[in-house]
Design brief:
Two copies of one chain form a homodimer. By secondary structure, the first copy, chain A, is an alpha+beta fold. Chain A has two domains: 2-360, Chondroitin AC/alginate lyase (Glycosyltransferase, Alpha/alpha barrel), CATH 1.50.10; 371-720, Beta-galactosidase, Chain A, domain 5, CATH 2.70.98.70. Chain A has 18 helices and 27 strands. In chain A, the strands form six sheets. In chain A, strands 9-10-11-12-21-18-17-14 form an eight-stranded antiparallel sheet, with no helix packed on it. Chains A and B meet through strand 14, strand 15 and strand 23 of A and strand 14, strand 15 and strand 23 of B.
């Protein structure tokens, strides 16, 4: 069917100088629309979505159209009303395309005429909270989103709207808005040409409205940047923002968000300019980018790395991503992902996906595979490794050794998070933000996002001298990425990744290296995680090394007698995120003995332990129990617990060796508790002159020896029981 | 069918001086067993349970029998092993009864012989943590539970065990254990005769073993107390521990726990001594007690009042309760409750319930009704009111104005908790305990249960002069209960309860009164809760009134500018639970103006606000944000938030008037936030000389006036819009 479409488009191109306007093409092809009209009843899944949308828009269409003068920030009335408006125009357009009921045309026509009356009267939005304010919305970003959906709506009904109305709408809304998005402010122009999700939305908005208005210049600017020189625009974003593995550099939360304009614009390009072979570009990079989305989630929820809120694979953006990807590729994997979503697109792509979903319905679920996704346009800016074991709610360990990730990146080099039994065990805080809640910094990222959530100490990685990576400078961070030294994840029972970061603490002369391994010690038992966190200091100056473990649930036991501050608490520090941590306990663990420390915590029905040791010539271990929440005047932070180990000394080599385990059962309903104590002990770690590290520990009385040799830049890892 | 059984038993009685032993009767009748053997295949539900149990016991029976010398506390190896043993004997007994496979007899026989070798060698358990230590277990309670299950197991296979083994087992285990439970220590004797769940377990253990060994004396002691004078024992417990409405005085958590021995012993009594008409006693009090269980739960989970952990309606204890109740009464309500459970009993009661469950399978769910359950044997010791609205995950407001509830009671007079959208909104802390986790106070209640969880300030009720009700004395508290002044819960859109407590703060000369109402202001909208918390001081001395709101989720806004302690925290007080609260903010709200305060918080997708005002002649309001966790050396407490209002003055009448609302939507997936701001404002409350209280507020611009007149000991409540 796609072949047919391409031929048809070829014909259209041959007959017009610019782009054809006789048919709607932005969201579906004429053939596609024909398919949907005639065959929609063959899919109950498609019809469920269609009827839901139709019922929703039919209820709305009865009510008066409201196009208020912009006034409120995100979450406020005018903001939400303009959001509803584009959503409803979009719904009306798609339902018109299928039903051909003129009432939807009238609705869109009238609403757009209202916008045509309002828009020319607007200067910048009164809430000046953003560096890129819009006119309808407080951020230009929202304006772009408005134009993306409205372009599709307009394209569906365009030929039915009286020509004089079309002229008014295009002149008073679409052209000025496209201009505004491209260069309404200097920042807007920068963003439009930028390699960033805001840029993708802006390009897509201008590209889509360009196609439907038949304006090649607008489309070219969207594709190649304002100067049409290829130094900005959508095609360059395709090159720069994804790694060869399809990982989007801002991380999963924004990959989910950006994939929607990427796929909507690509779909339109595919219809109007098939010769660009947009979906085949860079070895089908867009399809790869869609395909890795589920790999970046645990139990449907995206990992919280970088600025991230809790978003799932059933987010609306992904309906479009999965359905379009399926229609383009006919790869059942995409239809499989789509099965977790409540809806399909109201287009031939959605219908094709729905039919494939029915075909796959009886299939058995397949366990997710471990992946190591490179970052950077060349795939050379580190990677994120996702090590999994067992069922979809089994163990999942996420090791982040990526580039910074643009403006939403966190200073979290070589950090990790851990999931098991459906829960987040060792956590990534994500972002400090209450989306669109007006009383919380107007719904934007709160101050604490920068002062806490982005800082190194807010992550499960080593903090040197109580400072953040790259001194907390995004600019500095943007130039560097960790190096992946070693990856072996083919055997689920023994998965190993090693990464080095030579830059995050370069100003202190410290190089970080971390080895993480997921090993099944006893067949049938849950795997353990081995973590060797190393720091090489070039100098022999005194350094402080802090290794925090951000955990969920409730503390059950510590191997040391915690020295608590029973009735007075103070903040741990004054900056770099330390000012936001209450110091609840501070225990200097005496030297000598086996240098073993551990803590155990409980989440729902399972116990988790982190057992740690250090090299014998390291200073004494100081253990602190911390709680997030100090210096937080609006109580924006969640009061989560942290167990942090600190060593201070002049040695030029530091090493924290840990084993993370799941054990026991806390069965309240069955009134049965077993295995609440750590199953690992007698940890010993040593390092030889040639860099060989030997880490031994007992796992339920079984001796495990993990050896890592580091010769000629190759890492060789052995372990035996 | 029940009639037939009774006739059969009558014959047996006529033929023996004591109780017949030829047949198994403790858990099922001979006719019942016949039914199960022949008709079990007619129920897939029953067979699923049967096959699961059979598979479990068949796997166990292959392994060596382990009867270790007692050593460990709850959660430890020997404790859990002896628990497993009684469970497996019980399973083996029931499966034998159906399959007649002798391997199960051998298993029980051999295990009991091992116990017969061990038990005589034991003195008191080495872990002396309880005031009633056992011999096999650290608590006699566990010993009683062991004997309950073992009695049933033994009864199933008794006639197949060689006579000489029976003699050894009875002589070395059953008799000495029954003696030990009854009077092994002075405390055991006290407990055996006590009105308390430990007593019920003890009586049931001795009663069941008495029946199966044919020892009338033991049975009589179990039924009538050690002196067989009716001043103790099971029958008196039936009179004393339940209210006429079936509410168990210790609260839902222990009602769930105690109902199992009550029903197991009653079932046996019904088989052996049908003339006692045990299930008809006190207007079928046992059936009533089973029937109210679901009324004391929200979304299957029992309310956390008094000492309580998170237990659900699918707890194993309730399988027996619902199935036996159904078999006795044939009331489909019990089979309906049983449908939420994973299993049925392996008896004719379970089979009958399973068949009824199949019959009911297509039924539509019925919304739960509001109830007001009296407390106390005469129903005159206050009540717990459960006000519900809408679906099972809709609004549920629990107002606790009960008697103290024995040793597990909390000092929480007139407190409440609130649920909505499937979540706990205003919380009851429940108990501080990690069940059977050895590192946490050996799995018992932790110290903080007494020093925090039981204290008044740990609940959503008024605290006078920073002391707990009855000065925290259980002994004092046991003599008194609140009075229910007014109940009208028949109209779901307007439910009102008023209660007075004249005793909790009698030593300070203060009487408490609280009016709570669940009102639907706008049809189709969620109801609001109105709360008038009143205190009458007889003197004109200075009193401090603290009204804490224990909430879930995250703070979104306060109507006042919180004065936080940014980088230093201290404990709020030194005793009565105040020592466990960190003072995070302390804001003196200026007098004058409308005296309105509110705070808003977010739980998952919904916003909740508490709007409060006071009488105009009360002192200024001080608002404190607190967090649980100070002076908690083992970090046993959960760091939950509390918003507390304080007024201090000499007035002889104090009144806090609040409105609790649910509003808005925080839809992260749909990226839509609406209605995050409180929908209530302009609160005004006034009191006239005759005690009439007028509470006015605006609800979305609609004026609500709530008037309460208090004449001639009658409460008359009006509200109009």
């Amino acid at each position: 069917m796609r072949t047919k479409v391409i031929i048809l488009l070829g014909v259209l191109f041959a007959s017009t100088a610019v782009y054809a306007q006789q048919d709607t093409m932005l969201f579906d092809t004429p053939n596609g629309v024909y398919e949907v009209i005639n065959h929609r009843f063959s899919s109950a899944i498609f019809m469920r979505s269609f009827m839901r949308v139709q019922a929703e828009i039919d209820a709305v269409i009865e009510k008066p159209i409201l196009v208020p003068v912009p006034k409120d920030p995100g979450g406020g009335y005018t903001h939400e009303q303009h959001k509803s408006n584009y959503k409803h125009m979009y719904q009306a357009g798609l339902v018109y395309q299928i039903t051909k009921d003129k009432k939807y045309v009238t609705y869109i026509d009238h609403m757009l005429l209202d916008y045509a009356a309002l828009y020319p009267t607007l200067s910048l939005h009164p809430v000046k909270a953003s560096s890129e304010p819009g006119r309808l919305f407080w951020q230009t970003l929202n304006e772009s989103v408005w134009l993306v959906y409205t372009s599709i709506a307009y394209d569906c009904v365009r030929e039915q709207i009286p020509a004089k109305d079309r002229a008014i709408i295009q002149k008073n809304v679409f052209y000025p808005m496209a201009e505004f998005i491209m260069q309404g402010t200097p920042n807007n122009k920068k963003t439009f040409n930028k390699m960033h999700n805001h840029g993708t939305w802006a390009d897509t908005a201008v590209g889509l409205i360009g196609y439907t208005m038949g304006d090649k210049t607008l489309v070219d600017k969207a594709l190649y940047g304002t100067e049409r020189d290829g130094k900005g625009g959508f095609l360059l974003q395709l090159q720069k923002l994804f790694s060869p593995d399809g990982y989007y550099t801002e991380g999963p939360y924004y990959q989910r968000y950006a994939i929607l304009p990427f796929m909507l614009f690509a779909q339109a390009i595919n219809h109007y300019q098939p010769d660009l072979h947009i979906f085949q570009q860079r070895d089908s990079i867009l399809l790869k980018a869609v395909k890795v989305l589920p790999a970046l989630a645990y139990k449907q929820q995206f990992f919280l790395m970088n600025d991230a809120l809790e978003k799932t694979l059933s987010s609306a953006e992904l309906v479009a991503a999965f359905d379009i990807a399926y229609a383009v590729s006919k790869d059942p994997a995409f239809a499989r992902f789509a099965m977790k979503q409540p809806d399909v697109l109201l287009s031939s792509a959605g219908l094709a996906t729905a039919l494939e979903m029915s075909r796959l319905a009886g299939e058995k679920a397949v366990a997710q595979q471990s992946v190591c996704l490179s970052d950077g346009p060349e795939g050379k800016q580190g990677a994120v490794a996702v090590l999994r074991h067992g069922a979809s709610d089994g163990v999942c360990f996420v090791f982040k050794a990526t580039s910074h990730g643009l403006s939403h990146g966190h200073f979290d080099k070589l950090s990790y998070s851990l999931f098991n039994h459906g829960e987040q065990i060792l956590t990534d805080y994500g972002a400090a933000r209450f989306l669109n809640v007006a009383s919380k910094s107007g719904g934007r990222y709160t101050t604490e996002n920068k002062t806490y959530a982005k800082q190194t100490v807010a992550h499960n990685t080593l903090v040197v001298d109580q400072t953040s990576n790259f001194d907390g400078s995004k600019k500095k961070a943007s130039h560097f990425a960790p190096h992946i030294d070693y990856v072996d994840i083919t055997n689920p029972e023994s998965q190993i990744v090693v990464a080095t970061d030579s830059n995050a603490y370069a100003s202190l002369g410290v190089i970080l290296k971390r080895t993480v391994a997921m090993l099944t010690i006893e067949k049938g038992e849950e795997p353990v995680i081995i973590d060797l966190m190393m720091a090489d200091a070039k100098d022999h100056k005194m350094h402080t090394y802090d290794l925090p473990f951000h955990y969920s649930g409730q503390l059950i036991a510590t191997s040391f007698d915690q020295k608590l501050y029973p009735d007075h608490l103070s903040a741990l520090g004054t900056d770099n995120g330390y000012q936001h941590l209450w110091k609840e306990s501070d225990t200097l663990i005496k030297e000598g003995g086996n240098r073993n420390v551990h803590f155990t915590f409980l989440i729902k029905k399972h116990f988790y332990s982190v057992n740690t040791t250090t090299l014998s010539d390291m200073g004494p271990i100081e253990a602190m129990h911390l709680r997030i929440g100090a210096n937080d005047p609006s109580m924006n932070l969640r009061p989560e617990p942290v167990l942090m180990y600190r060593v201070q000394n002049k040695a030029n080599h530091q090493l924290f060796a840990s084993v993370l385990t799941t054990h026991g059962l806390y069965d309240l309903v069955g009134e049965k508790t077993t295995g609440s104590q750590s199953i690992v002990n007698d940890l010993q770690v040593s390092e030889e002159m040639d860099g060989t590290i030997t880490f031994k520990f007992k796992y339920k009385n079984k001796l495990v020896v993990f050896t890592q040799t580091n010769k000629e830049n190759h890492v060789k890892i052995n372990y035996h029981l």
